[in-house]
Amino acid sequence: MEKVRCGSAMSLSIREQEEAQLLLVVEDLLGRFYQSHTSSEEKKKLETELHDLRTTRFTWQYCLDNLDKFHNQYLWFFGSTTVEAVLSRWSSLSASETAYLRIGLLKLLTNYTTATPALHREKVAQILAVVASFQFPTDYPEYIEHILELLQERFPIGLVLARALGDSVTQKKYVVSLQWQERFKAAVTPHIPDILRTLEPYFAYYLASVVEPRNVSDPPTSIEQYTNELLHMLQQYFGWIEMQGVEPTLAEALLQMGRLRPTTDETVVPVSALTALTELYYRQQLLAPATSKQIVLGVKELLQQPGLPSAEELYQDKLSDLVRLCAKRELTAKHELDWEPFLESFYQYTVNMRILQLFYEHLDTWIVIYQVAWDKQVSYTDPVIHRLLSEVFPLKLSTLTMERMLHPNEGWHEQLAMCDLDVSDEEISELQKYYNLGLELVENIVNLAPQRIYQAVLSPLVTSDDSPYRRGLHMLHTIAIRPDIVVPDASKCFTDFIPACQMVARLGVLLNDKVPAIVAWLLQEQLELFTLLADCLQPFDRFYRWQGEAQKIIVATTQMMNTFRSLLMQIEPFKGTMACHKPPAFTEQQLKRLITQLTKILQTTEHQQPREWRLLMKEFASVLLHVAFSELLKPRCLYEYLDEAFLACNIFAHEATTRQMIRQAVINPLLTKWDADSATDASSAAVGQLALRREYLTRYVRTMAQTVLSVEPAAWLLTYDAESQYRTQLQYRLELQDLTELIRCYGYFDTSAKALLASTLRDVIERALYIYTKTNGRGLQIPGPAHAPQSQPLPRARETDGEGDDPLPSFCRAVIEVLQVQLGEPFLQQVIRVFLGQARTDAYAMQQHRSLISLLGIFVLIVRQPGNRTLIADIVQLCVGDVLPVALGQAEPRSAETHGRLCIALFELFDAILIHRWRYFVPPQGPAQPLAPALSHESQYAAILQGYGLVIMNSDDSELVHNVLASLRVLNERNSLFREPYFAEHFAARFTQAMLHVLVEAKGDLYQQMLVSLLYELVTIDRRKFYDLTVTVCPALQPELRDELCQCTDMPTFERLTNQFVDIARATAITLRPLASTAGTTSNNNNNNNNNNNNNNNNNNNNNNNNNSGVGGVQF
């Protein structure tokens, strides 16, 4: 007997020694693996050794039995991930193995204490929750009972397990399919109310610790920690449980926990409680009436807390969110709630708000309240809400809004001014955003109480001499009469004038039908003031005389003109002698004077202007444009009122947007038919007017394109000095860019207007093509660095499409988009052949992507239109032979964005060719042809399809891949691409395999629906081949599931089976790679190296007739 005992002890000692030695080996490998100086190659070897140990001695069973004995952090994490990895091959485990895993995890978790690291508890609980998602309720019916028991007996451990339950429902972990998750969610949902009721005693315990902390034995920090974890768990539960399960007692407890504490400034738990309540309202379901009533009452009490205005900003932010969502949802619920104290409390909170950003949010909440009341028609079902929002609060809110806009709280203007220091011309300033919120609120109040807003806001603003609006007008009037006068309070006056002016404009538009007389009076007054300013301040830029006050004066004038334009859009068109229901707001002489003054002001030649001045010029141009496009004047009268000097002047000193509006204001009346004069022959008069309009338009277009029409490309570098060269080059670009934008504005005009425009532009197009040809496709460029002149520099030219220096391709693209029919096919062929010829000879430009994007856009327009057959062969040859290798090549980092746009443009062209020119490749089958006709241009057809396949496999550009997949879908629907004999024989299997591989990859989630629908169509080509391909991509797929997938004939079932296929394929791919998620930088470095190698291989293969290899060895 002693020998047996000695043998047992000896064998035990040997086993312990072996285990100790194993742990030392694993710890050593992990320590070396995580050292920062370990190379990528060495880490790869270490990873292989660890994997071998994991499959031999360091098994998941061993780790599960000894996990509580692993004290080294690397060792414990490696052991836990070893246990976790078994979940991804759950279907291969036996019943005894699953039971062993479940029992071991539960034992491990229940033995943990509060001293156990939180990471350990959470990890084990998460693994156990995933096991439960596989087995509950059939094989693990005690799961919910275990949670309830632990919550009652060992609350911290039970809380961790309850939180893990929510994780397994809301997150897709461990390759749990969507159907599996939904089944688990449906199984546990009926038990959630039991879990919530089990938590109620803890709520009472926490509240007691706040009121009577001396009667509570646990330390305050521990109570706060677990309470915060509990609230985070509830927030997660509220995202997916049934709303009817939230009882009023639970809502009341959360509201009590969300109150501020009188004895401390700590707000961690109150903030978490408010966040949990807010999560309730992000759901689309309605709460029970009793719960809604409890929340509205509780939120009202939260708004009445004495220390609320001085509370922490985060707490106030969360409370504001809760108020907004509560009002938005409950106002439409029709629960007959008491809204008056709620809204009154929120109004008082808004009045007392001292935090600028939160005041923003409060205004936005009031906007939401009025929008809900108006849009959802709550006023028809709840007279109390209608009375409150139309009688009680309009005067209060509009008064508060105007006071805060004109007299912000201390420091608010300074905060807004600091935020606006780096604001560009195109961005909205923070101050203007502040104004916009107030204006939007008043606009929404007008919907329910128009008369009250007129009496309380608009009427006092425009009639009272003490209003900021009238004071600002009086100040401008004073400056116009006495330009040299020093006004001490001008800055303050104009600061208040700007929001007041905006309020007048907004309300004048909304109340125009109710108070038309006051709108007409305002327009007359503003017009008189503008003409007075224009007459007295000649030149108009004499505003600079006031130095420090100039900015405010310019901004004030800009705002006045914006108000004038807004109100001008509301008046009746001027009909001359025709009868009108209302008298016109202006006489024809007044409009003539307005146009004359605007054209004089806009003839500026000053380039270096401050931002405020540029915005003022933009507003003047906008007013002129509105007059041109409205019916206030007849087109002929309008054109004749334009100053001759204005029509002939160079307006490139203005910004591009301002120039564009000026150009349209001039050209629009010339493209619009003029009324017949008193000539006896109306037809001859019309012909004469057309000739006159063509003459005027030609003259103006020549003014716009002076450089394009006059420069000689062969001599300009020799005859011009450096400054003249720079100006000529920039002027050339600006002229073509302006013409490009101008042409695009007239795409919606009628045929006669387009014909007139095309006839005037023909000379410009021909001259620009001549320059393009003579300069070998480079346009006007100065060799070497170009130096801007020191005196009067021109504004910087815009980038055309980011693809090159010459804007001509963009210009021609706009011409073809708008005027293709009017120019005629012979002329278009001439244009296209110029580009084709230049593209073949300019290899450098091809490699640099210069002009290619616009050129491909031109080709798309040509391909989509019928006719132009003689051009198609040349277009396809250029794109397949020259552009496609560039697009599939590796982009340089500095040109990656341009390269991406080039690829998108190229495959958009391929899509157009295959859809609109299908017969170029697949001739129609005649009645005497029993067999399919021979394919035309086979090599080009194959090259395009190869390009499609390479994009699907290798591209990381989601937009490009989406476009290619969408193109395949449309081609199959319209032309039966997948059943076309050549495609079915040479490409169907390759595309199928490529799509399967991409679907299994992580990026496949981005295109899952499109890939599945395409695969469903491809399966029907050859089901046996599809079976073999699924074996290649996912060997671990069960045979019965594979058979069902390959024989499926309906789309819903095919989609479900494909999702299972993807889950299993991904599980197989990651089972043996558990370190990938823990290696951090190392894995990233390895991936980067692999990606670099793949890119290099792709480049080499691209140079070999595009026969490169994609994922999974798919050959294209």
TrEMBL record:
GO terms for molecular function: nuclear export signal receptor activity. InterPro entries: ARM-like, ARM-type_fold, XPO6. The keyword Zinc does not apply. Keywords: Cytoplasm, Nucleus, Protein transport, Transport. Residues 782-805, 1077-1116 are annotated as: Disordered. Belongs to the exportin family. This is Importin N-terminal domain-containing protein. It comes from Anopheles atroparvus.
